[in-house]
């Protein structure tokens, strides 16, 4: 699954990667994004332009409008997303890209959960494959909702968790967002292996608390001392 991630790079990086006309209104670095929070998401308008929006993490389908008994879904399984009524229509017509520069998973070890951070080797921004839906109640919440699609973990990450988010290569971005694209082409993207471009390392328990949203969330943990490694002044400037 994917239940926590980060987007710490300046908005100009996201603008360049996705070919956007402008940056997100929220320009603050986010080290510990959690479900139900409002974050940047990319989608394509009907005329074909790519748009940067703010969406709430936790998908609710349009037919659940006004029904409080439906649980927002933060993840959608790639193996069943095209058939399950909860996600089917959005997968066909409302696909999204969720910008990130890392995500977290936990391994149960010695009676406690050890958090790991997974990020690109070059530490650059990438995109989760997602789906979105318009707000079901514009009076109480103006934001659309989204879910991150997951698949079976690639071989070099399955020791951390048996599931991982679907991460799309930049060359597939426009095709993924295009609701006119052949659905068979879209389905092929869900199984592409890309974990070889990623590395992982342990971080401290600081990230466990969703109220902690600072650089300490991504600092490597020294397994010999259980203390966080210091971040250089040069590294800290990258988040400004």
Summarize the structure.
The chain has 240 residues and is mainly β. The protein has five helices and 15 strands.
Task: Note the main attributes of this structure.
globular, 32% strand, mainly beta, 5 helices, 240 residues, 15 strands, 13% helix, eight-stranded mixed sheet, hypothetical protein yedk fold, five-stranded antiparallel sheet, single chain
Question: Could you describe the 3D structure shown?
Answer:
It is built from 5 helices and 15 strands. It has 240 residues and is mainly beta. Strands 3, 4, 5, 6, 9, 10, 11 and 12 form an 8-stranded mixed β-sheet that branches. The protein has a 5-stranded antiparallel β-sheet with strand order 2-1-7-8-13, with no helix packed on it. It has a two-stranded antiparallel ribbon with strand order 14-15. It has a single domain, classed as hypothetical protein yedk fold. The protein is 13% helix and 32% strand.
